[in-house]
Design a protein that fits this description.
With 353 residues, the chain is α/β, with parallel strands linked by helices. Helices cover 35% and strands 17% of the residues. The longest helix is centred in the C-terminal third of the chain and has 20 residues, at 254-273. The two termini are 28 Å apart. It binds 4'-deoxy-4'-aminopyridoxal-5'-phosphate.
Length: 353
Amino acid sequence: MLLNFDAGPAALPREVLAQASAAILEYDNSGLSLLELPHRGKIFEAILEEANSLALSLLGLNDDYQILWFQGGGRLQFGMIPMNFLGSEATAGYIDSGHWAAEALRNAHLYGQSRVLGSSQADQYTYIPDWGAIPGDLAYLHLTTNNTIYGTQFHSFPETTVPLVADMSSEILSRRIDYSAFSLIYAVAQKNLGPAGVTMVAIRKSMLDQQQRALPEILSYRDMAKNNSLLNTPPVFAIYTSMLMLRWMQEKGMEAIENESIAKATLLYDTIDNSPLLYGVAQPGSRSRMNVCFRAHDDKHTQQLLDFAAARGIVGIKGHRSVGGFRASLYNAISLADVERLVDTIRDFEKTV
Ligand code: PMP
């Protein structure tokens, strides 16, 4: 198998893939494939229940929160947030820390007013912008806590009484933060959680009464919550595999996950900082532990290193098409040994130049 540092769909642990594959052939001696299970039957009910309780427990959230599973990816959440929570006369705050943050903001204009409380766009999103004072009358404040394309990450969060809404797609459950500071957290599965096709939402139940307009049920957090994510036929495979990944994380423990994440990022950033050929893109104070973005001083080394790594079975380190260079994504399924392999490859490449 290749060693995959892609930003998503991302690597999953072999043991999770093995269990998911076995379940497709036959789910736990039930005589049915996972893909044939009735979504309102006892078996899937137990899978969903386990996924929900594992997610709450790993996030350190209590009964004030509910876990929901949506299709439609991050982009659907970009639309659903203002659709549900931004009245036409109200204003929502957004921190413009990258492409996905800007895409989320673009959707707010469709439903109400918005205010940008800090942007690093003029500097190619190389840092997390300052946000200044947060007006107390905002409907909510939206942030993208980890910016997948630019390799930046919030290392502290705005302190405000305004409900915080966060896109944590590319960092969910990689570090211990106070998740209860947020009223709504969403994360597409295909990075830290599982396969594409499902998005996990943790929502404070008091938010469910805040719906601002009539909506089709499938676009309403309130109605989805009332139906425990089973308004329509859910993506059973994606939820099951995410549950396996949550179990995997539970076994490791959040402390070990966070410590390994720090060790992985430190090793790779140190290698880049000490490289005669490479340099880091994000400003040091804003560096992401999840997506490490770097470039070659001399452009001709970019393709050469990509080819050198590919010959050693390392893929997915090409930067996003909009920024170029390199990006290595160090999500939870990537081990410290995997990063050591990448670092050895970079060092060996340097010797060839
Ligand atoms: N938010 C973030 C932070 C992302 O990195 C991405 C995709 N890479 C998205 C949202 C969009 O997710 P999707 O393609 O599932 O809509």
